[in-house]
Amino acid sequence: MAETNEYDLVVIGGGPAGYAGAIRAGQLGKKVACVEMERPGGTCLNWGCIPSKALLKSAELYQKMLHAADFGLSTESVGFDFEKIVSRSRNVADQMANGIEFLFKKNKVDYFRGTGHINVPGMVEIKDGLDKGKFLKAKNTLLATGCKMRPFPGLKLDGERAMTSREALVQKKQPDSVLIIGAGAIGVEFAYFYNALGTDVTLVEVLDQVLPVEDEEVAKLLGRSFKKQGVSVHLGTKVDNVKTTKGGVTADLVKGDKVTPIKVDAVLSAIGVIPNLEGAFSSKIKLDQDRGYLTVNDRYATNVAGIYAAGDIIGPPWLAHVATYEAIQAVNGMFGAGEPKRVGLFPGCTYCLPQVASIGKTEQAIKESGVPYKIGKFPFAASGKAVASNASEGFVKVISAETDGEILGVHIIGADATELIAEYALAMELEATPHEIHETIHAHPTLSEALMEAAAATENQAIHI
Q1: 227-239 confidence digits (pLDDT tens)
Q2: Model pTM greater than 0.90?
Q3: Range of the domain at 443
Q4: Residue 380 lies in a domain
Q5: Considering the domain boundaries, does residue 345 fall inside one?
Q6: Is the same domain home to 306 and 420?
Q7: Are residues 136 and 13 in the same domain?
């Protein structure tokens, strides 16, 4: 007879939403189970955020070694082992997954391997996997199954010639040339990675800028930087007639009436994500959806009592840190540990070089809204720390309301942008103004001084420009 266990909360999915929600419930003293088909950490930790950043760090370090002479250093020879770079990224992911398993034990979260399936509200069956056949009785269920890569029409993935980011993360052999379809964060990061290691990269985006969700000024600078680095960037361009053979990949790049044939070793599709709900619940359970994403209220509850959802599965923004926030908010509300909040402000980060980070609205969006605004910009070329670090490319851009100084948006492109954005995330959460950022003493010399100077620039008070 199948084994049945009873829980205060069963979480289906072990990614940033799932494991965070499970651990938070464990902290509250609840009996919790987390069902994950692979390893704890989900796509982000195992097949996305973490291993890709390990790859990018190797590429960045390699590029720095190639330019050692800029620092007065000499090297006899610089090389790399592509397979070892990929292997290191897998080891990093494994180490972090082990860490999540430890946190499960620490917080008394029962971890089950398999695919969670809600037969009826309050009952989760584990299908497939090591724990197949077990039934978990749940007072509450949190769906956190996330998203998966959107397939490119007609492209059959083989992990060698045709890939998404998932296949690229375990690729054994570096391609001599690669076509990357989609210039969002994933496409841009892999374009930087491959190009930095010497692969001939063609990056294609159907819209008119790389990183379409970012500020136009930032995107233009990144596009110029990529072209300078050697990436072939094609904007406002579609990819048609993709065909894979043993000898490579052929495709047509279509811009208006112009069709340009291309032949490369491999193609990587990075055209977005789709909801991952297949097999999550029976046809008897009618959960409200919007374009395949689960619809939830302000407490992250679905229309079916006792079933909640958080993370990518409830729609954009598809970001790990947003997913974690949502799951913790859902669990707090579920068990009376606080009034849950829906996501408002959140930083977005892209880890190519130069890095890109932002929070709030773009200048285009603010202009369209009709709100009078001011801009303060500070270039890293005027930052002593940036110049000393040979990292003077980029700028900080602060947009504030003319009337009351409210910070409406902040956009950073340059070294360590993804770390620097946190100061403005906190500032906007606390409703600080550029004046307060400017009045806060920042250590010298640091890159963070650029945040202060950009704030000062909104009132024409920046010292170093």
Answers
A1: 999 999 999 999 9
A2: yes
A3: 354-457
A4: yes
A5: no
A6: no
A7: yes
Instruction: Give pLDDT, residue 44.
Output: 83
Counted domains in the chain? 3
Q: Which residues are catalytic?
A: 444
What crossing angle do the helices spanning 417-429 and 449-457 adopt, rounded to 10°?
50
Ramachandran region, residue 41 (left: φ > 0; alpha: ψ -120 to 50; beta: rest) = left
Q: Which residue has the tokens 């972090």?
A: 96
How much is the pLDDT for 43?
A: 84
Distance CA 393, CA 285 (A): 53
**Alpha carbon of residue 389 to chain centroid:** 26
- Amino acid 332: pLDDT: 98
Report d(CA 325, CA 451) in Å as an integer.
25
Report residue 139 as tokens: 């007072």
Which residue in this structure is represented by tokens 């606080």?
Answer: 338
pLDDT over 60 (residue 3)? no
From the list 348, 159, 354, 193, the residue with the least C-alpha distance to 269 is 159
Range name among 13-22, 279-288, 414-423 with the lowest pLDDT average: 279-288
Angle at 332 between CA 329 and CA 337, to 5 degrees: 140
Strands 266-269 and 177-181: parallel
Task: Identify which of 260, 254, 253, 309 has the alpha carbon closest to the alpha carbon of residue 13.
Answer: 309
Shared domain for 287 and 213, answered yes or no, is no
8 & 144 share domain: yes
- Token pair for 15: 């990614």
